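Appendix B. Chain record.
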Amino acid sequence: MKSFDQEVDERVGANGSNAPLIATAREFTTASALAKYSYNFSWLGRPIIQYPQDIVAMQELIWQVQPDLIIETGIAHGGSLVFSA
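Structure tokens predicted for this chain:
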């Protein structure tokens, strides 16, 4: 696993200075926000106003940190609350 983690660190570092990738990501973020893309998803049947890649990133972060407590503020339809539970 250490070699995988090292590869991930290297890719993430390289992505941070990849100008074409950053520009494309900005374009996607702007266009998808205007199209309300993040309103198209659910988690276990509850609407969740999140980008799918953010949900996966949160899952990875929660697994890595293993917090004792997650505090959710601002609940629209409960999808992210169910996800955090």
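Further analysis of this model is presented in Appendix C.
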